[in-house]
Design goal:
The protein is mostly helical and 64 residues long. The chain folds into two domains: 30 residues, no CATH class; 34 residues. Helices cover 62% and strands 0% of the residues. The protein has four helices and no strands. Helix 1 crosses helix 2. The radius of gyration is 17 Å and the shape is elongated.
């Protein structure tokens, strides 16, 4: 739940006293429907705000 609401994974690791970040990630980083929807929204905002020259290069598979 903490990840779903944007809590930093390192803070969660610290609070749970996991010595390795991988332990926290493996145990608590399942992707929820809300997280998937949030990711799509962020991606759409990024794509919609790219200057046309970057979008055209990205669309054609070129590095910018």
């Amino acid at each position: 739940m903490l990840l779903e609401f944007g809590t930093n994974i390192k803070d969660i690791q610290n609070r749970l006293r996991h010595s390795k970040l991988a332990t926290t990630m493996d145990t608590y980083s399942h992707v929820t429907k809300k997280m998937k929807n949030d990711s799509v929204s962020i991606f759409e905002k990024l794509i919609n705000n790219l200057p046309p020259k970057y979008f055209l290069r990205w669309q054609m598979g070129r590095k910018y």
